[in-house]
Amino acid sequence: MTRQRLWTFQHRAAPYLFVAPFLILFCVFMLYPLGRSVTLSLYRSAGPRAQEYIGLGHYAFFLSDARFWTAVTNTVMYTVAFVGLQVPASLALAVLLNSQRVRLRNVFRFAFFAPHLVGNVFVGVIFIVLLAQRHGLIPKALGAIYSPWLEINWLNDPTWARIAILMAALWLSVGWGMIYFLAALQTVDRELYEAAEVDGAGRWSQFWHVTLPGIRPVFIFMVLIGTIGAFQLFELPYIILGGPGPAESALTIVMFLFQQGFEMGDIGAASAIGWLLVFMILVISLLQLKLSGFGKEEGR
Amino acid sequence: MARSIASAVFDMSFHLGKPVLTMLVIALITGAGIAMRPGRDRADLVVWVFAVQHQKAFVDPLPDGRPSLAAQFTAETGKTVDVQLISYRAQNIRMVGAFMAGLSGPQTPDLVEIEINQVGKYFRPPVDHVGLIPLNDYLRRPGLTPGRTWMDEIIPMRFTPWTKQGRIFGVPHDIHPTTISYRHDLFTEAGVDLPAARTWHEFQDACLRFQEYWRARGFRNRHALDLPSADGQWLSMFLLQRHINPIDDQGNVYLTDPRVANTLAFYAQLVSGPRKINGESTGGAGAFARDLVDGNICAYITPDWRVQFIKDYTPVDEHGRKVLEGKMRMMHLPVFEPGDAPTTTLGGTMMGIPRTCHDPEAAWKLLEVLYLSMDSNVGRSRDMMILPPVRSMWEDPVYHQPDPYFGGQRINEMFIELAPKVPARQVTPATHLAHAIFSVLLHDARRYIETRGTDGLEEACRRWLARAEEDLKRRMAHGEFSE
Fold it and tell me: Which pairs from B164-167 meet CB under 8 Å and 24+ separation?
C-alpha cells in the first residue's frame, strides 16, 4: 500500500520535479527582477534606505524630457541606418559566398564571421586605435588620398562619431548575418531556379522572384533581431566614445538608462526607462511583423 | 591499457551524441575544479583603487629599500591589507551597485578611492544616508605638524568637492593646480613669446601667429593648443578659473551668469572658425605624446598629474633621454579678466570609508598611512609627481628640483605657488548634467560660428544657456530627495 502511494506520488510529482530547476531559476533570475523593476520604477531611489514613492512620476517626466527624446531619436536614426545597411550587406555577402565559383569560400566565411566572435569590447578598442586622429590606420589611409582627411576627428565630431559607431557595429555583425542568410540560401529548392531558368529568368529576376521569397522568414528574422539589437546599443559608444559622445551624438536609450542608474544613481528612473524601452521594442516588433505579413502563410 | 581505455571511451555509445557527452565531461571537470579551488582569504582591510600608479605607490617597496606603505601598516598594526586595482568604470559600477543594494562584507571595500567626476552621484541620498562615513571627527585629529590637525594642514578648498552639507566624506589625494606646457623650441623658432600672453585673448593671438608661421612653411597640421572641441568638463575648468561652478553645493545654478556665455563663446572660437587654435589627439596618452614629439600639437593644459603621465609616454633617444627633454617649458594660465584665479583644476581623487566598513578606526589609520604620511610622499612623487594637499609635505626637497624635461624649470615650485590659489570646485549629483549641457552647447556654438560667423554668438549663447538652466533645474527637482 505504502509502496503504491509512493509510486502514485512519484508519478504525479515527477513532471514538476523535472521542470522545477528551470522554474526556480526563471523565477529567481527573471520573474522576480522583472517584478522588482516594475515596483522600483515607481520610486525615486538612491539605495535601499533612500527611496521615495512617486507613482508614475518617472514615466511622466521622461515622456516630456527633451534628453530622453534625444536618446530615442539617436537610437531610431542608428537603427534605421544599421538595419538598412546590415541586412543587405549580409545578404550580399551570403549570396557571394554561396556561389560555387568563389574559391576559398570557407576561409572567407570564417573571416567575415570572425569579428562577431571577439565581441563588442574588443571591437570597440580596435576601432579606437583604427580611428585615432592622425595615427590610426583609417585616417592615415584617407590622409594618403587627400591630406586634410588625416585630420578627420572621428571620435570627437558628432557626425563622424556616429559614422564610427555604425562602422564598428557593421564590422561586428555583417558576418553574423551572413551565416544566417547562407543557411537560408541553402534551403531554397534548386528546382525552382531550374524552372525559372527554363522560363527565361535572368540572375536578378531569379534573385528577386525565387531567392528572396525563399529566404523571407530569415529575412524578417534578421530585420527583427537587428532592430531589437540596435535599440539596445550601448557597449560600442560606451567603449569607443567613453559615453554619450560629442554633443551627445551617441546618447542612446540604453546609454541614457545607464546614466540614470549608474551616473545619477537612481535605479528607479533607470527601471522606468527600461520599461519604456521594452514597450517601444514591443510596438516596433509587432508593427514589423504586421507589415511583413509574417504568419499569414501559416494561417492560410 | 591506455589504448584500451581510450578505445572504450571512443567506441561507447551515448544517446545524446559524443559532443554532448564531451560538454558534460568538461562541465563536470571544470565545475569540480572551481568548487575545490581554495577561496582567497579576505585581508583585514581591503582598499579599492582605480589607478595603477596609486596601487604602485601603496604596495611597492619604497625606493630606499624600506617596506611598502601597506607593509608598514601591517607591521605596525598586525592587520593585513589588500590593495585591489579595479578599472575606473568597473569600480564605480560596483560601488554604486553595492550602495544601492545595501551590500556589506566581502563585496565591499574598507577604503575606496573615488574620482572627482564620479563623486556627485554618491551624494544624491539625504546626507544621513550617504554610503560613506563623514570624516570630520577624524580630520580633527593631530596632523603632521605638532599642534595642527589634518583639517588645518590640508588646503581647505580641496575639501569642497567631497563635502555635503558640511560633512566631509573623503580625504583629498591632490589639488591638481593647472598650468600650460608648450614646445619652447617651436614657439621660439616662430618668434612667439607665449608666456608674455597675460590674457586668454592675447594667448589666442600668440597661438594664431604661431600657426600662421608654421603653415606658411608647409606645416598645415601644426596646432598650437591641445583642447577638446566639445567636452563640457573642459569648459567647466575655464569657468572655475573665473570662480564659477555651474552648480554650487546649495543647488544654485549659474548657467545664466553672463561670464558663462562669454566663456562659452570664447571657447567655441578656440576650437572653430578663423581663430581656431586647437588640435585634438584621440588615441590616448601614447598618441598625444607622439603628437607632441611630432609637433602636431605644441602646447597643452597641464594639471600636475599630466606632467609625469605625458613624460612616461614620451619616446627616448639613442642616449636614453626623453626626446623632448629641454624642449618643453611651463607657464601660468592666462586669465580672462582681473580677479580671475591664475590657475584652475582638472581631475581629482579622494579616499573614503564606506559605511559598511567593519573597522573604521583601522581604516582611518590605514588612510593616514597611504595618503597623509611623509612616506606616502615618496611613492607619490616617484610614480605620479602629484602635489599633495598637505602643506607641510611641500617642503620635501623632491618638489624643489629643477626638471631637465622643462629646461631646468622648477615646475613643482610653480605648482606649489599656485596650489593655494586653486578655486574651490563644488561637485553635486547634477554637475555631470551641466557638463553634458556644455558639451551640447559647445557643439551648437561651433555650428553657429561655421554657418554665421561670430556676430551675435555671445547673445545666442546667453539664450541657449537660459533655456538650459531651466531644463537643468527641472531635472534637479525631479531627482531631489527631501532631506
Answer: B164/B123, B164/B127, B164/B130, B164/B249, B165/B127, B165/B249, B165/B483, B166/B136, B167/B127, B167/B130, B167/B134, B167/B136
Query: What are the distances in angstroms from CA A136 to CA A140, B169, B332?
Result: 6, 42, 33
Give the Cα separation of B237 and A30 in Å (integer): 44
Taking phi first (over 0 means left), then psi (-120 to 50 degrees means alpha), and beta for anything else, what does residue A243 get?
Answer: left
How far is Cα A231 from Cα A283, in angstroms, rounded to an integer? 12
- Name the nearest CA neighbour of A244 among B433, B204, B455: B433
Grid cell, residue B246, equals 555651474
Q: Which of B288, B299, B300, B307 has its CA nearest to residue B414?
A: B307
* A-to-B residue pairs, Cβ atoms closer than 8 angstroms: 120
Q: How far is CA B368 from CA A105, B420, B443, in A?
A: 65, 22, 44
Tell me which chain B residues have a C-beta less than 8 angstroms from the C-beta of A50: 124-126, 129, 481
- ipTM of this complex > 0.95? no
Contacting A with CB below 8 Å, chain B residues are 92-93, 96, 99-102, 118, 121-122, 124-126, 129, 131, 220-221, 228-231, 280-284, 287, 290-291, 296, 429, 432, 436, 439-440, 442-444, 471, 475, 478-479, 481-482
Domain ranges of chain A: 2-58, 66-291
CB-based contact B440 A151, cutoff 8 Å: no
| Strands annotated E in chain A | 43-45, 51-53
User: What is the structure's pLDDT at B192?
Assistant: 97
What's the rounded Cα separation, in Å, for the pair A195 and A211?
13
- Dihedral (CA of B270, B274, B275, B277) sign: positive
Phi, psi torsion values for B279, nearest 5 degrees: -135, 165
| Chain A residues inside the 8 Å CB shell of B475 | 65, 67
pLDDT given at position A101: 86
**Residues on chain B touching A52 (C-beta within 8 angstroms):** 481-482
Tell me the pLDDT tens digit for each residue of A201-233.
Answer: 888 899 999 999 999 999 999 999 999 999 999
What grid cell was written down for A76?
531610431
Residue located via cell numbers 565531461? B25
**3 state DSSP class of B6:** helix
Residue B306 to residue B59: CA distance in whole angstroms: 22
Residues 6+ apart with CB under 8 A from A189: A214
Average pLDDT rounded to a whole number, residues A149-157 = 90
**Nearest chain B alpha carbon to A264:** B121
Residue A299 has pLDDT above 50, yes or no: no
Contact A153 B280 (CB under 8 A): yes
Contacts of A264 in chain B (CB under 8 A): 121, 124, 429, 479
The pLDDT tens digits for B272-319 are 999 999 999 887 888 899 999 999 999 999 999 999 888 999 999 988
**Winning range, highest mean pLDDT, from A38-47, A281-290, B171-180:** B171-180
Q: For A66-291, which CATH class?
A: mainly alpha
Q: For residue B297, which of B319, B282, B317 has the smallest C-alpha distance? A: B282
What's the whole-model pTM score? 0.88
